[in-house]
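Fold it.
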Amino acid sequence: MGKMKLQKIGELKLLQEVRKRFKTEDSGIILGIGDDAAVLAPQKENILVTTDMMNEGIHFDLSFTPPFQLGFKLVSVNVSDITAMGGRPKYLFLNIALKNDADEKMFWDMYEGISKAMDMYGVKLVGGDLCSAKNDMVLSATVIGTAEKFISRAGAKAGDKIYVTGALGDSACGLEILKKLTPELKEKIGSSAEALIERHLMPVARDSSEIAKHATSMIDISDGLFIDLCRICDESNVGAKVYLDKIPISDEMENAAGIMGLDAMHLAVSGGEDYELLFTAPPTPPAPPLDKGGIGGVNITCIGEIIEKDRIAVDKTGKEFPMKAEGYRHFGAP
């Protein structure tokens, strides 16, 4: 693939090639790419629809974000919203605005990342839009999924336990490494640097199919543990108590954060973009597979419990303090 500029190729040729590369046969797709709208067959289950944008300079920096990883992440963050509600992703719409001077290789590298994510999650591309941008790149995706029983943020009850999948703070730490990256820093951190960077550039949406059988509420951690837990509390009209020493932090992240002079716990509770699942479930009996501590090779950790009111964090000495809704907010809203 060459360095020909997109303005030399034109929208129609690009769309024709996208249609050819992503041609698919699916019983649920009556009419896909190529018409004014996609036509999808009626579904027997609840239909879930989500959309997320990624703006250059806000969500990604092209100086250290390769196009392949960018395309993969665009799909993953949208799929994560579907799995966070106990759903299965099925169909994908892409809306992409690129600068006229973007080259063909960059375009198709990004679509290779999109294709890899589609294959991973079993998603089919059924439509979207492609246009030029005068300034920064803008990407948007819409994913449609289905769920026999969906899980919202509003079902948590006092007495429920609070769980998270995986480890928290890896993505935020990976971003800090990218921002500060030098040969010396990479040598100090060692081989874990690449793994942490990948957690930021190529997050993987968690499969919630087993968790959804037991969860009373659920959300994916996109903006940070504390702020996303507060969203569950807001929608469920409850409080929460979180034990900081229970929050799962990887040794690799803790080591890298220390080398960079960063607080690993702060990254874990407010860093965001981990796309791990944060959910609540009844306390007794321990709901399988939660009592086994994991599912599908992914650890599940109980970090606290839902209470009637107040939002409390407890440190390792037992001292309690208010849990602040820390995390990323657009427009700097309080």
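The radius of gyration is 21 Å.
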